[in-house]
Write a structure and sequence with these properties.
Layout lengths: L1 H16 L1 E5 L4 E4 L11 H17 L3 H25 L9 E2 L1 H18 L17
Antiparallel strand pairs: 1-2, 1-3
Helix pairs in contact: 1-2, 1-4, 2-3, 3-4
């Protein structure tokens, strides 16, 4: 599961550089890193920060790291849903054309959530004394 989590994290980073939407009237293409000509800012940078925390917490084999990882992926999934709905919203009678990067970003965020819900973590069982009471 760790390899899948790392692959999905790389996919999310790549999707931030791929075009998300194309606005025909302004003749601009928006990606997660380059949203020049709009008021969207650069939403891909926040994904990259969250992916960095996700990778670190995924590689640490402790229970506390897996719990923090759930918080990170929940924030990332919420940010992905926000980007999906706000950036691709029709404004002023014009609907931007959605590109593959927007869908990849959303799918990668959801897959990150799934990998964080099912981590590879060995739980040590406690052995009890088998002494008989005489």
């Amino acid at each position: 599961m760790n390899w899948l989590a790392l692959a999905v994290a790389v996919l999310l980073i790549i999707s931030c550089f791929i075009p998300w939407v194309y606005i025909e009237s302004r003749n601009i293409t928006i990606s997660g890193i380059d949203a020049t000509g709009t008021n969207y800012g650069k939403p891909g940078y926040f994904h990259i920060v969250l992916v960095t925390f996700f990778i670190v917490f995924t590689l640490i084999a402790k229970v506390w790291a897996k719990r923090f990882n759930l918080i990170v992926v929940a924030l990332n999934t919420a940010w992905a849903a926000r980007n999906f709905f706000i950036i691709a919203t029709c404004q002023g009678g014009e609907c931007p054309e959605r590109k593959i990067g927007l869908y990849l970003m959303l799918i990668a965020s959801l897959l990150m959530l799934l990998t964080a819900l099912f981590p590879d973590l060995e739980i040590k069982s406690e052995k009890k004394n088998d002494k008989q009471i005489k």
